[in-house]
Amino acid sequence: MEADNSKIKQAEQQHLDFVRGKLKIAEQKTATTIQTAKQSQQELEDHFYDDVRLKTSTYEGQMETGVSVRQQQQMLEQRQNRWQTATRDLETLQKLDQNAYFARIDLQEQGEATPEKIYIGLASFVNPDDADEYLIYDWRAPISSVYYDSGIGAMTYDAPSGPQRVNVTLKRELQIKNGQLTQVFDTDEAVGDRVLLENLSHQSDTKMKSIVTTIQKEQNAIIRDTSADLLFVQGVAGSGKTAAVLQRVAYLLYRYRGKLTPGQVILFSPNQLFNDYINQVLPELGEQNMVQMTYYQFMRRRVPRLTVETLQQRFDESLMDEPHNVTTLKNSLELFQAEGRYADSLNQTGAIFRNIRFQGKVLISKEQIAEIYRSFNANYNLRNRLEATRTELLKILKRHMGAEMKKRWVEEAVEGLSSEQIEMLHAKAGRQRTDDDQDARFLARQVVKAAFAKVHQQIKRNRFFNINQQFVNLLRALPNWVNLSEWGVSAADWQASVTATVNRFQAGKISMADVSMYLYLFDLVTGKRPDLKMRYLFVDEVQDYTPFQLAYLQWNYPRAKFTVLGDLNQAIFTRDSSQTLMDDLKQLFDPDKIRVIKLLKSYRSTAQITNFTKQLLPDGEAIEAYARQGEQPRLAVATDQQQAVQTLIQTIKTNQADHETTAVIGKTLAECRTVAQALQQQRITATLIQTENQRLAKGVVIVPAYLAKGLEFDAVVMWNGSQQNYPTVHDDKLVYTICTRAMHRLTIISIGTPSPLFNAVNPADYQLIKE
Ligand SMILES: Nc1ncnc2c1ncn2[C@@H]1O[C@H](COP(=O)(O)OP(=O)(O)OP(=O)(O)O)[C@@H](O)[C@H]1O
After folding, report:
1. 669 contact partners, CB below 8 Å, separation of at least 6
2. Where does ATP bind (predicted)?
3. Predicted complex ipTM exceeds 0.95
């Protein structure tokens, strides 16, 4: 219903002017607060020591000075905080001044005589002249939920005091640009299609945007859930899983303000490129970003001495071999549990150690360490035993260091010290120089300490525990802890995989399947304490995770509530095992605390593209297209590479003319390199994305499929969707993932016969072009 009624518009503009007037007052007040806070902070800094009582001659005096300094620092911190908070407030007010709100709802609470007008915007704003009057409600406020969840009429929402029944009498969408009202539109739907359609028809960007003005009802449920320990969002490609989850982070930070910080929220994302893509959404919503990491980074930083298999290698390998029973077993929850039992058994059998060396010679032998370890009662748990062993080793080290002080090399080293070095050593220790004898002993101790620093650190970091050997031992022993035949794995297959792991170790490498097992073992034996700080954990593209990895994440973050997002149809790394992921996850959480939300509507692509892509899947019927119109996808069949390149260039040029940015998506990096070269020869500018650490560039990009995960582009060209490249039904998920990256335009170029997967699509739903 177009509220073009000029009276309505006029009244709304008047209200907006009134609100902006109040915003201006608040802005001025805040600016003054900033100014005074800044000034008094400066004064405090300038006179920091004037107010500190400096008494250093006696012990009491030093204590008093310390307390006094601390007090001054605290005051300084308080002023800094006040200043920072006010600066943030001012930013918010300025944003609101430009765009105060986007919606209005009128609702009547039970028992109230008149309806209340609620304006919803990016942040709350209270009338500076009347503290009881909310001029703007934050989109995350409980009452704002009404806007996203209902049309006109009676409904119930979750108020802080419990469920609240209200009658909605008006829903109005308001568009404001630079402080001026541009459009007013009354609607009776939850969130009107009109604004959504308009938002969706925008051009893609190298950065994702927030969706607060058009959150859909099912997405709102994801955003506001606070009860589930595991929230599993299963959504088709482009259904707004990532979008919803980022708004969810903003919601949680609002809802638990003061109790939850961005550092207690962690998002595991598919690759670094994706991190870059989404990192503007939270700042746009006035919040700081959460911790963002890929699982690979999470692993790699803990094994600096080994090279972990990269995304590309992992993808290439999964292309080469069929879903392998050994890998499936290694990735399973059963194996995670078996590993726990194996680690427990080490209490009886003992762990494997390695020699501690100093200057190339064995200082404490592994046998000696094993003896110490055994000497502690087996009733100790693993952590305590290792800790006790470590303490004992540090004592032994101290004795060795004492003995070493009298050695000739130490004497020589002391003699070789320059006078600056000697001064520095004394100063560092806060020591006055005394007579020669004591000084010499002091210096000898420093020299020995420096020489043993590395050994000391090694002991502290449990390096005497031989994790590599222990890991191989675990692999060898595993047939005693799991029934290989239940997994269709023969003893010989298993043996071969152990040998492969050992060979990789020798080359300083470790596979992605092995590295989680490896770290879990290390943690169990050394008794690493889990991270209790993290309260919310998000996993995007969960279908590419293995049950083992998820169990390990849960073990690492036992207090975190999990939100996992996935689309089983986009499982490009794990393929079959992703189907059982839900069953496995159910075992990790209390079944009463699991909530599954399904999103079936795809917002990213035009109806034509969604109707095409859904037919690529055996069970794609359930996917709903969003009613945004565009042109039909094109399947262009070229006879050879040269002709294919010509078609590609033509497509890029047409897209450019229509202001659509193009992503050329290939299967592998090697293939993408070939395309990049071909384009370069023809003087077409394009950016080849080779690693996940690159930035998304504007203009034409060429990107391998596994790096395009989670991203979207105006126009996509799938490079070489031929039978040769995608010969089997197993390739459906990969082809689906590639094609669903397109928002407005999709072109598939095939060199020779196209993949049989396209036979499943109704010929009326695409244009076939034979060159
Ligand atoms: N409620 C909404 N309002 C406006 N835009 C939306 C909404 N929901 C989703 N979108 C847009 O649809 C596109 C796809 O969303 P998103 O990337 O979150 O989907 P996804 O489910 O994570 O997709 P995929 O699994 O394919 O990576 C984005 O451009 C997003 O901004």
Report:
1. 312, 690, 704
2. 235-242
3. yes
